[in-house]
Design goal:
Helix content is about 40%, strand content about 20%. It has about 425 residues and is an alpha+beta fold. Among the domains are: about 30-85, MutS, DNA mismatch repair protein, domain I (3-Layer(aba) Sandwich); about 185-235, 5' to 3' exonuclease, C-terminal subdomain (DNA polymerase, domain 1, Orthogonal Bundle), CATH 1.10.150.20; about 255-405, Dna Ligase, domain 1, CATH 3.30.1490. A 5-stranded mixed beta sheet has the order 5-6-1-7-8. Strands 9, 10, 11, 12 and 13 form a 5-stranded antiparallel beta sheet that branches. A hairpin with a 6-residue loop joins β2 and β3 (about 55). α4 runs antiparallel to α6 (about 130-145). The two termini are about 45 Å apart. It binds a DNA duplex (18 and 18 nucleotides) through α3, α9, α12, β9 and β11.
Length: about 425
DNA sequence: TCTGGGGTCCTAGGACCC
DNA sequence: TCTGGGGTCCTAGGACCC
């Protein structure tokens, strides 16, 4: 969108890295600009409460992702604020990932708008990694209408750093013999896994660049940041990153959350510090569990650990979790567990005022185990056979349920079910 | 209108088992 | 009577990423 693609001059014909990190620029905002010509070339902010995405024109005013909407508008009064259209972004993401997969089967998605691609072994068919990267960018632009930045390097980490440096609408190739020269002058915040807390710890000790980190020695970093972070940072600063591109990674949890807004002061007096009745909270909880379990069933996943996430008036947080004896995607089972956690947390909620509720199910498994469930009939009854069968389908996925055995007081009845 | 919604990974203590 | 070490699972919290 802004400016020409930058291609590093000293590219190599051989020994070149084969990992691409492809990252859509200001993704949500770019989709809005693509779909509404009036937004092109103008500062666009997606999300009114919190900035979900800002176009580069808005970023030029200092608007940043995750910033409060009010301060964003103060920085950039001329910005056009649009509400997010998640379904449009999901569709755009699918289209972009199609382009990725036609480029190479070795695609590892990281999020809705970025992925690693390993293009090693494609040289004879598709050309050098750099040529593939150039074509990938033009394919995404032509076929989906979105600008995308690509970093090319020998390792995942370096490819990601390269795309970050090349943004927006850029291409940056890090040659194998120029890796440390590229890496060491960069600020520590560029290291993957260094956020505000770690950056402050490092800067507090006068460590500002990746090169400084590299001089430090692993033991010093471990004592400063802990075992895992210390080792991780030491390795990255020396450009050690043996991770391969992994195809078909499945996520480990599925969750949903909802912000409730601040507690109205008047309501505090009416119904305690939470400002909401337990019934209000329970309705939100039931809605979240319903959404989560639907998504689990649609994805063919079952899970065992139910996590309740809470946030309070002062923005402090708490989580409570419970692990079930078996994996499930059954709405009522997970709702029961979430209600148990919520009940136990009610005193805390009364004291601190609830501003966000979230439910996540972790410990996910694929729902492919040929389970033979038994459900206590009377729990789902009203004595009604159909609703009991619905409960079984709901819990285990309707296409997976092919036969139900109903055990009565003194008889068994086997009912074949057609998957739908 | 102070601060969304979706995730990952690590740490640390306690229970429990061998 | 006193004394190990190793491993796994669960829970809670926190940093970080997009």
């Amino acid at each position: 969108m802004t400016g020409p693609a930058r291609v590093c001059e000293h590219m190599f014909m051989s020994g070149e890295g084969t990992i691409l990190h492809a990252d859509l620029d200001a993704f949500y905002a770019s989709v809005e600009q693509r779909d509404d010509p009036r937004l092109r070339g103008r500062p666009v902010i997606v999300g009114s409460g919190v900035v979900l995405a800002a176009s580069y024109e808005a970023k030029a005013c200092g608007v940043q992702t995750a910033m409060g909407g009010r301060s964003a508008r103060r920085l950039c009064p001329q910005a056009i604020v649009v509400e997010p259209r998640m379904s449009a972004y999901t569709a755009a993401s699918r289209a972009v990932f199609e382009v990725f997969k036609q480029t190479t089967p070795m695609v590892e998605g990281l999020s809705i708008d970025e992925a690693f691609l390993d293009v090693g072994g494609l040289r004879r068919i598709s050309g050098t990694p750099t040529e593939i990267a150039v074509r990938l960018r033009s394919d995404v632009l032509e076929r989906v209408g979105l600008p995308i930045t690509v970093g090319v390097a020998r390792t995942k980490f370096l490819a990601k750093v390269a795309s970050g440096v090349a943004k927006p609408d850029g291409l940056l190739v890090v040659p194998p013999d120029g890796e440390l020269a590229f890496l060491h002058p960069l600020p520590v915040e560029r290291l993957w896994g260094v956020g505000p807390v770690t950056a402050n710890k490092l800067r507090g000790r006068g460590i500002a660049t990746v090169g400084h980190v590299a001089q430090l020695g692993e033991a010093a970093l471990v004592s400063m940041l802990g075992q895992a972070s210390g080792r991780h940072l030491h390795a990255l600063a020396h450009n050690h990153d043996p991770r391969r591109v992994q195809v078909g990674r499945r996520r480990g949890s599925i969750g949903s959350q909802r912000a409730l807004g601040r507690t109205p002061t008047s309501a505090k007096h009416a119904s305690g510090a939470s400002g909401r009745t337990p019934d209000d909270i329970d309705a939100v909880l039931a809605g979240l569990v319903d959404r989560v379990t639907r998504r689990m069933r649609a994805a063919g996943r079952v899970g065992r650990t139910v996590v309740l996430r809470l946030r309070f008036d002062d923005f402090s947080r708490a989580t409570r979790s419970h692990t079930l004896p078996w994996s499930t995607a059954h709405t009522q089972t997970i709702l029961d567990a979430a209600r148990g956690l919520m009940t136990a947390a009610m005193p805390m909620i009364e004291r601190q005022g609830l501003t966000l509720v979230g439910v996540a199910v972790g410990n996910l498994d694929n729902d492919d185990r040929g389970v033979q469930p038994e459900l206590p009939f009377d729990r789902y009854s009203g004595g009604d056979l159909d609703s009991a069968l619905d409960a079984v389908r709901d819990r285990f996925g309707s296409s997976a349920v092919t036969r139900a055995v109903l055990l009565g007081r003194d008889q068994g009845l086997s009912v074949p079910l057609l998957p739908d």
